[in-house]
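Supplementary Note 3. Input sequence used for the single-chain structure prediction.
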Amino acid sequence: MEFPPLEELTFEVLPDDIGVLRINRPDRMNSQTIRMFREYGEAAMALRDAPLRALILTASGQRAFCAGFDLDEIHKITEMGVREFLKFQETATGGIQGIRHLPFPVIAAIHGPATGGGLALALAADIRLCDPRAKFSAAFVKVGLSMGELGTSYNLTRLVGPAKAAEIGYTARIVPADEAEQIGLVNRVVPTEELFDEAVAMARMIAQNSPGGVRMSKRAIQRNLEITSYAAALELENRGQALLTRSTDMPEALAAFKEKREPRFTGE
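The predicted structure, written as discrete structure tokens, is reproduced below.
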């Protein structure tokens, strides 16, 4: 697959068609820049049609997953006019949205702090694993902004509920790893030295299943977060299941079950 040249992100493909997208600014605690937000979108666009089974979203170094926006670039934002800033916001949110809407599962492997925009990026994943050193903060109010930033108000509320999201957003307090697991902000806390391997193992477990079934499952989960009608949810599910019965993977899975062997999924 072709991939755009990036400066602040890296990408590689592991065996079993598992991708790894890594923030690569370890000297700055993987903090975000204007360029990085643009690269999120470029990476998501390149990955959208990639034949991957899952993507691991992580970061370089040992200090942090992503410490939010790099304060060395804050002057660039404050010097922007309203229209220029709106364009920047649309680029930033579009990049994170592009990662969230990738058709295959995204697993975030979070070591150390994920704050501000780093939290927003982690929330764009479908599954979050973190190490005991991880800590999370929606500290937007500390710099005069709101939690209505980069999708945080939407994604965090749906993960932990409106009351807990309000507390985290209004106080800007730090949520440690153990609490993050308790409230559902992360799926599991994993020892630091095992974190990446655990993410790979989970991705490989996903890759053992029907590609179409996994992708349609992700679509159903995401779309049903955005609609309030039970009837509409059922309609979406019914269409997805009907389409999957026309694939080659469903009869192959049934045949494998009868023959007591592992299915050979093709995604066709």
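The domain at 9-207 is CATH 3.90.226.10 (2-enoyl-CoA Hydratase; Chain A, domain 1). The chain has a mean pLDDT of 92.
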